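job 3f2a | input accepted
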Amino acid sequence: MNAVNTSLPRAERKRSQAGDQDLKQQVEGLRELRQITGKAQADIASALNIKQPSVSKIEKQTDMYLSTLRSYVEAVGGKLELTVKL
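job 3f2a | predicted structure (86 res):
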């Protein structure tokens, strides 16, 4: 889910983008995102300065503030980008 490096050769950028698309399609929730990054709920709790049961609760939510989602994504080492298309 990393931004594609434009200094890479074109073929390499396409492979990277395809890999990102595959990963995006495979991740079905925050728990899976955390597991892919190899982090435990305790790691996320520590990064967010909350208790582990709260991380479990966040992972089960279907609706949350963008600020909560952003914090969680950053805690697993990612960057949240929001795109609005009209």
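job 3f2a | The domain at 30-81 is CATH 1.10.260.40 (434 Repressor (Amino-terminal Domain)).
job 3f2a | closed
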